[in-house]
Amino acid sequence: MQVTVKLFAFFREGRFKEEEREYPEATTVSDVVEGLGIDLDKVGITMINSRHCKFETLLQEGDNLAIFPVIGGG
Amino acid sequence: MSLAARLREKSPDNVLLFADALILAEQCNVELLKVEQTALEHNIWPERYLRHRDIFSPAQQHQLLVSTVAIIGCGGLGGQVFEELIRLGVGRIIAIDPDCFAAHNLNRQLLCTVEELGKFKVQAAVKRARSVNPATQVTPFAQSFSADIHEEVRQAQVVIDCLDSIADRHELAGFCRTSRIPLVHGAVEKWFGQIGVQEKNNLIKELYRQIPPQDKITIPSVLSCTVAAVASLQVAETIKLLLNLDSPLRDNWKSVDLLSCEIEELGPRP
User: Fold this and answer.
1) CATH architecture, domain defined by A2-69
2) Along the 270 residues of chain B, how does pLDDT read in single tens digits?
3) Is the Cβ–Cβ distance between B240 and A23 less than 8 Å?
4) Of residues B187, B216, B267, nearest to A74 (C-beta)
5) Contact criterion met (CB < 8 Å) for A17 and B216
6) How far is B175 from B129, CA to CA, in rounded Å?
7) By the CB < 8 Å criterion, does A54 face chain B?
8) Domain definitions of chain A by residue range
9) Which is it for the CA torsion B246, B252, B258, B261, positive or negative?
10) Which chain B residues touch A70 with a CB distance below 8 Å?
11) Which residues in chain B have their CB less than 8 angstroms from residue A41's CB?
12) Which residues in chain A have their CB less than 8 angstroms from residue B172's CB?
């Protein structure tokens, strides 16, 4: 299935801003995150089609997945 | 002669010169803040706020002068927020930070100067207010945000999160929810930041799913321009809360990217 993955802030460094990617059925949000070499501990908000989602949420064909990092500095 | 009568006498064109405000405070033995508040009550603009005249009504500027805001963390974001709030005319600021300045703060923390190295950040804030806006009443706490100062912080109409610890942010957000005080959140790293306002929702819990274990905590690199941009957005939200103006950020947040010049569209509503 095709999923549009959007990365934000420093998650874009050495990766991409937005990409249409191919994934097998039953792929979860955490599968995508880990597949991109991103540590789950560094992930803040994740959204599918502009709605908050969990790491274990299953992706569907045509979904837009947005991944934001934890930003903690003051 | 009453303060109001003296103000009218000194301000025939409805502008109170800064020098006259200082003289009146001394002559009438009242605080400078009281002189400015009274002037605005009579539609007289203190000179220092003259360039707000087409933005705020005298009543709105007066509202800022009678407001109390708490800044939790007086480093990068907190120092910049503090500077902007004193220039805006927020009457009372509760400034909380346990730390002293170190040389690695010089790249981005506005209140950090070579002569302030080794000194408490909140003391630098007091000094800065005295030199920029001596009418501001600053209540400094050279300590972490903790239960012993909860009562003091409850006097604030808005609390501003300028912390750098996720655990502390969770604690502060819980306090603000219980106390029903709006929390203006900001955070920065490298070229990036985020800004949000928690009123009724659980914004901080959404943004920070978990408190990282001690061994996973890293110290982020941050640019001064990122700090200034995010802090300014926090101040803009603070003004809107104090003056009860609408904002799309209430119970919402935005991602700020100075590298791509993007402020991410709304949508991530928890």
Assistant:
1) Roll (3.10)
2) 899 999 999 998 999 999 999 999 999 999 999 999 999 999 999 999 999 999 999 999 999 999 999 999 999 999 999 999 999 999 999 999 999 999 999 999 999 999 999 999 999 999 999 999 999 999 999 999 999 999 999 999 999 999 999 999 999 999 999 999 999 999 999 999 999 999 999 999 999 988 888 777 889 999 999 999 999 999 999 999 999 999 999 999 999 999 999 998 655 454
3) no
4) B187
5) no
6) 27
7) no
8) 2-69
9) negative
10) 166, 207-208, 212
11) 210, 212, 216
12) none
Task: Find tokens 């191919």 and name the residue.
Answer: A22
- A–B interface: beta-carbon pairs under 8 A: 77
Crossing angle, helix B18-27 and helix B3-10, to 10 degrees? 150
Question: What domains are defined for chain B?
Answer: 3-55 (no CATH), 67-263 (3.40.50.720)
B187 vs A contacts (CB less than 8 Å): 71-74
Given an 8 Å threshold on Cβ–Cβ distance, is B189 in contact with A73? Answer: yes
Which value does ipTM take for this structure?
0.92
Q: Cα B92 vs. chain centroid, distance in angstroms?
A: 10
